[in-house]
Every structure is written in structure tokens, then in C-alpha cells.
Design goal:
152 residues, 66% helix
């Protein structure tokens, strides 16, 4: 992006897309370095979320994928041995999944990549700027949730 342009002249959606790419690039580089480049698109969100105790169902809902996309993602994660069915006898949910050892390695690589970007960002911004940035992202998330709720 052109650096001499005032920030307010960049459209926010374009900035968000470009910024999100920063995390994606860092994650792909880290996964590749760990020999885990077969993790499919949206896989980092799944293995990371599962490692943090989220359910597969909740993670898929958060990604707003179509049923076909969900099936492809889950099939790819299972086929590449990143996740497996949870064997909790009390768990009746068909989407009861857990990370395999490979999935846990991938989740650690994803977390390390995110940490490295966050660390660099915290060195580039003052604490107040970083807090303002986080508050803006929370506000955008709130707008999305309210809009989604109004559609139902």
C-alpha cells in the first residue's frame, strides 16, 4: 500500500482484507516450516479452536460456511489426520472432534504465528493505539452480530 497517503483515505474493508492477509501469510510460513502445509484452508481456525476447547459445530458456525464447504473442510481435516472423532461415550454429537497429535502440532504452529504478528504489532503501536484498534474491531464485530440478528 502507498505509505504517503493519509490513513483515512484507505477504505476500511481494503485495510481489513490486507491486514488479515498478514496473519494468513505468517501462519502458512510457520506451517510449512513445521512440515504441515497440507492443513486445508480454514484448517488453522479449526485446529486452533479445537485446541482452545471450542466445539467443531461452534467453529463451523463462526466461519459461516455452506454445508458443502463444511463437509469438504471436515473431510480434508479427517483425511489428512489433523482431527479425529472424539471417543467420549457421552458425546452424541456427530461433530464431536478432537485434534490428533498432528492437529495439536498444527495448532501450536498457528498460535506461534499469531503471536509473532501480535508481538510485532505491539512494537509498532503504542498501547493506546493497540487498544483503540482492538476496540474498533470489537465494534465491527458487534455491528455484524446485530445485523445478523436483525435478519432472523
Amino acid at each position: 500500500m502507498e505509505q504517503n497517503k493519509p490513513v483515512n483515505e484507505f477504505p476500511v474493508p481494503a485495510l481489513l482484507r490486507q491486514a488479515r492477509g498478514t496473519y494468513g501469510l505468517a501462519i502458512r510460513i510457520r506451517l510449512s516450516a513445521e512440515g504441515l502445509s497440507d492443513l486445508p484452508k480454514n484448517g488453522p481456525y479449526m485446529v486452533g479452536g479445537l485446541a482452545n476447547g471450542e466445539s467443531a459445530e461452534q467453529l463451523l458456525r463462526e466461519m459461516s460456511l455452506s454445508d458443502a464447504q463444511c463437509e469438504r473442510l471436515l473431510g480434508a481435516l479427517l483425511d489428512a489426520h489433523f482431527v479425529e472423532a472424539a471417543d467420549d461415550p457421552g458425546e452424541m454429537d456427530a461433530l464431536a472432534l478432537r485434534n490428533t497429535e498432528k492437529g495439536l502440532r498444527a495448532a501450536r504452529a498457528v498460535a506461534e504465528a499469531i503471536y509473532s504478528v501480535n508481538h510485532e504489532l505491539s512494537r509498532m503501536l503504542t498501547p493506546e493505539e493497540l487498544r483503540g484498534f482492538q476496540n474498533a474491531l470489537v465494534a465491527l464485530s458487534d455491528i455484524k452480530e446485530r445485523t445478523e440478528e436483525s435478519l432472523h
